[in-house]
Amino acid sequence: MIYLDNVAVFVRVVELGTLSAAGRDLRISPAVASHRIKELEKHLGVRLFNRTTRQVSPTEHGRAFYEGAKKVLDAVAEAEANVASLSDRPRGVIRVTAPLGFGRRFIASGIPEFHDRFPEIEVRLRLSDHNVDMMKEGIDLAFRLGLMEDSSLRMRGILECERVLVASAEYLARKGVPEVPAALVTGGHECLLLRFPGSREFFWTLHGPDGPEKVDVSGPFDSDDGDVLTDWALAGRGIVMKPRFEVEPYLRSGRLQVVLPQAPPPAVQLAAVYPHRKFQDPKLRLFLEFMVARCQRMVRDALAAA
């Protein structure tokens, strides 16, 4: 078992690029992670990593060992899932990711209740508005708003989510109310953009009078946190595109107003995605069913209160 633990540390170091990141992921210190790598290298009689002060990279031996080691760990995880399916007390760790604002309100708030029901299942939640590489990061389940591009993942649809452009009355009084999508550009409007490293050139797709229309929006403010964009919109700093359920309380109170209601953005799918083999794991199925029902109820309640 100690050898298998050492192999698990090695795999996470390769995938995350540093001993400290692997240590955080596995809940061990960098010193313990380093010791386990050294034990593995001693056992194999080869050097597995080239080390610098900031990161490590696998040697030729390390790259070759990684492929086989990953398969071994996957096989062990599958075997454990098969055994767990015969038990009425599922246990173990689930690694989950979700968008920041949605994850805080819908996923994080439900994890304590899930843990009360299934105390032997540990949920490790990572929140990010950037789509995390699930395979590289070792994520079991991701909640996403948008289109699924990776065909190697399975998808469980949760809800179709209406999206709206919104801004404060203060902003619209200062900058004017756009009447057509093109006015977002020609009218000099300030659009609040969700960006992160690697973001492509930005545009919004809106349903104009002649069908879908791409608008090359811009503005002085952007962030990789969707809640920050909402705060800026509330402060009168621009127009933001959001799922309606996220801003419905502000629409009801009048703090935000819908912009271009006659030319809305297309709806997006709220979905859970996961590697195909992961769904054999009963603890993942339990968590997914719990959160799907919870998200559907909370979103519908938020919209019904309008």
TrEMBL record:
Ranges in coiled-coil conformation: none
Occurrences of domain HTH lysR-type (ranges): 2-59
KW Glycosyltransferase (keyword) present: no
GO biological process annotation, one example: DNA-templated transcription
Recorded GO MF terms: DNA-binding transcription factor activity; sequence-specific DNA binding
A Pfam cross-reference name: HTH_1
InterPro entries: LysR-type_TF_proteobact-type (IPR058163), LysR_HTH_N (IPR000847), LysR_subst-bd (IPR005119), WH-like_DNA-bd_sf (IPR036388), WH_DNA-bd_sf (IPR036390)
Assigned keywords, A-Z: DNA-binding, Transcription, Transcription regulation
Family statement: Belongs to the LysR transcriptional regulatory family.
Name this protein carries in UniProt: LysR family transcriptional regulator
